[in-house]
Structures are given as C-alpha cells and as structure tokens.
Amino acid sequence: MLNNELINLQGLIEKYVAASANDKFLSEPDLESIKYKIIRECECIQGSWNKTLKMGTSEASSINKMELKLTIAQLALLLRLLYEEGIFVVISIASLLRFFSLHFMSKRQKQISYGSMNKLYYSGDQFTGYAVRELLLNMVNRLNKMFFPI
Questions:
Q1: Which of 77, 115, 122, 142 is 20 to 30 Å apart from 96, CA to CA?
Q2: What is the dihedral of CA 109, 119, 43, 36, to 10 degrees?
C-alpha cells in the first residue's frame, strides 16, 4: 500500500515541479489544486509511516524499497528543493530524511543511512546541482511535449 502512495506522490511532485517551472501555463488555482493533492498524499504516507515506526525492526526491514536512478546526493538535493518549496507538510527535516532513507534505495546503494542523507542534504556541490538541474529541465521538456506542443 505504501509503495502505491509513494508512486502517486512521485507523479504529483513531478507534475508540480514541472508546472511551477512554467507557471505561465497554469493558473494559480491549478497549482494550488496540485499542491493540495500532494499534501493529501503526504498525509496518507505519514499515516503509513507512523504504522511502520510502530513495527519491530525485523518487520520494518522487510519493507520493499523503491529503487531510484539517483545518487544519494542527488536525492538529498531534490528533497531539499521540494522541502524549501513547501511541497512537504512535514515540519521536521529529520523525519523526512528518515522516511526516504527507510523506503528508498539509490542506484549504487541498497541501504541509505539517515546520517548520509542528513550530511548530503546540507552539503550539496555544483556537480550534484548540475545533475538535478538537468533532471528538472528534462521533466519540464517532457511536460511541454505532453501538454504544450509547438
């Protein structure tokens, strides 16, 4: 169930990021509608997260992790951008980083430690910034092709 919620959230976040980059194409009510859906999805995920925290460690370790084609540094920077844009309802950055380190794996590591995520969240570099910027630009280009063909 949690994986489905995460997939829904990922789609909403991609839609919001792309729409925000091209805000001239979407009206403020449309952006607010997407933001509201993201908040609602985050609340569902937070409920699942709370259930996970109540589980024993053996049960929590059996959670299926979603693999990303990102490095941990890229994931941390992307989370920082989303957090600073107000996408997440979560006030605590620590709980956000714990959630992603528990439920995701990077393209190079099956286990993402909270300490590693925390360190990389605050210490991005230009190389990582470039990679994340390219990802976001590709998403915007895809959105333009899908909804605004020339």
A1: 142
A2: -110
Angle between helices 2-21 and 126-147 (to 10 degrees): 90
Calculate Rg over the CA atoms of the chain: 16
Whole-angstrom Cα distance, residue 70 to residue 52?
24
Answer whether 126's CB lies under 8 Å from 113's CB: no
Looking at residue 90, what is its pLDDT?
A: 78
β-bridge mates for residue 66, sequence order:
104
Q: Considering the entire predicted model, what is its pTM? A: 0.60
Domain range annotation of the chain: 2-147
Contact 69, 80 (CB under 8 A): no
- The pLDDT score that the predictor gives to residue 5 is 62
- Non-local (6+) Cβ contacts of 106 within 8 A are 67, 68, 70, 71, 72, 75, 112
Q: Residue 73 carries which side chain, given as an amino acid letter?
A: A
Average pLDDT in the chain: 79
Give 106's strand partners. Answer: none
